[in-house]
Amino acid sequence: MKALIGLLLLVFGHDVSSVIHSLQVFQTASSGLSTFPEYVMVSMVDEVQIEYYDSNTQRIITKQDWADQDYREDPDSLERDTENRKDNQQVDKGNIGTLKKRFNQTGGAHIFQSMTGCEWDDEDGTTEGYQQHGYDGEDFISLDLKTLTWVAPVHQAFASKLRLDQNTAYNQYLKNYYTKVCVDELKKLVVYGKSTLQRTERPRVSLLQRSPSSPVVCHATGFYPNRVVVFWRRDGQELHEQVDPGEVLPNHDGTFQVSVDLDLTAVPQEDWGRYECVVQLKGIEDISTPLDPALIRTNRGDKSHILAFILTGVAVLAVVAAAVVGVFLYRKRNNYEKASQTS
């Protein structure tokens, strides 16, 4: 996937103007984990968490003031949605029991997950929907919305595929849900959360280097939204060699950060002036930072520069945290209601 993205950027260039909104629901059911709820549901809009539910509290907790506007206008809907989540909890608990039999498992810790939702491009109006399920961190079954058939990457899922493929009425319902109902809900939530979701916060850019032989890191932080492009240029041309782009990671305040490494092992310092780091974010002018030794923060000699490496340390911790969450949130995609009747 990274190679494909890189090829597209090489051919078509960077595009930060298109805004693709997303509504995502992650459901995680587990067994054999005493310190983790048996069922967790997390809802997100544009990667901002709006709701949380688990089997221990058995109640919906809204994470944004604007996310509970429907509940304020229709108090009965909160009770209905809570009951839906309780139903999902029982369905997924049964799914784990079925899957343990299919995989010939008797004990141990096991996790069943689903990612459901939709995306909407607010410029050209195109939409896309997803329903994917995983078991113990591996793909189990997913819906191909174009053909309305189910994809089973493991033989244990083939029985589910046959049953679901034959249920044409249910598949048509899912198509309508992901192409219309989910998208309508997403558009409404985007309006509710406009002041949060459609704000722009300018990134702060730093050049960091741990030692003279280490790569120089272009670190952008504090930006919103997360659709940022950060890259290195030499003589005005984007570099695809010598660079190691990192993931966009969340900060504690709801903004994001990202780093892109530049390997200067074979570059004499007198040529550093040919390089620059460029940050592109919709709504602001490009931020260009030249590769000037005077601008590079290091941890050599000046303790004030240690802060820069605290920031990168935070990024490492965020990666670790993301990996832990990934065990329970499996992969990233999108939905908004119950759609996990898989096994």
Automatic annotation (TrEMBL):
Residues 203-288 form the Ig-like domain. One of its GO terms (cellular component) is external side of plasma membrane. InterPro entries: Ig-like_dom, Ig-like_dom_sf, Ig-like_fold, Ig_C1-set, MHC_class-I_related, MHC_I-like_Ag-recog, MHC_I-like_Ag-recog_sf, MHC_I/II-like_Ag-recog. The keyword Cytoplasm does not apply. It comes from Gadus morhua. Belongs to the MHC class I family. Residues 66-94 are annotated as: Disordered. Keywords: Glycoprotein, Membrane, Signal, Transmembrane, Transmembrane helix. The chain crosses the membrane at residues 306-330. This is Major histocompatibility complex class I-related gene protein-like. Pfam families: C1-set, MHC_I. GO terms for biological process: immune response. Residues 1-18 form the signal peptide.
